[in-house]
Amino acid sequence: MGKSLLLGPLILFCCFKVLSGSLREKANIDDEMVFSEDNSGEKVVQCRMCHLQFPGEKCTRGRGRCMATPEEACTVGKIFTRDGSLWLTFMGCLKNCANVRNIPWSIYLVSFKCCRGYNLCNENL
């Protein structure tokens, strides 16, 4: 695969990381389910985080959890090739998250799914 095909998704990942503002890895990533509240009393949700996961593989970069602030949501982003094959998945916290499907981006289609209902809700999206 050419360098130009890999450069586009890397730029998208950088934008995703910058826009989210809360991709903080935690040292302790056990599976406890804990809701906490911020100073205003709103529930803060833990989200699964993975910056880079190819189909059939485990997370290769940015594995952990992030804490979604009240204006953020847990998200799963998927990049598909034009023929519909899954090419890449990434997860984390994202501000102003919106559910979108098959947005054209260069030679790829990008989809985002968002949730806030419970801790780690983006694991099964």
Automatic annotation (TrEMBL):
Sections of the chain in a coiled coil: none
Residue ranges of every copy of the UPAR/Ly6 domain listed in the record: 45-123
GO molecular function, one term: acetylcholine receptor regulator activity
Keyword Signal: yes
Top-rank taxon: Eukaryota
Keywords, sorted A to Z: Signal
Position of the signal peptide: 1-21
Name assigned to this protein: Prostate and testis expressed 1
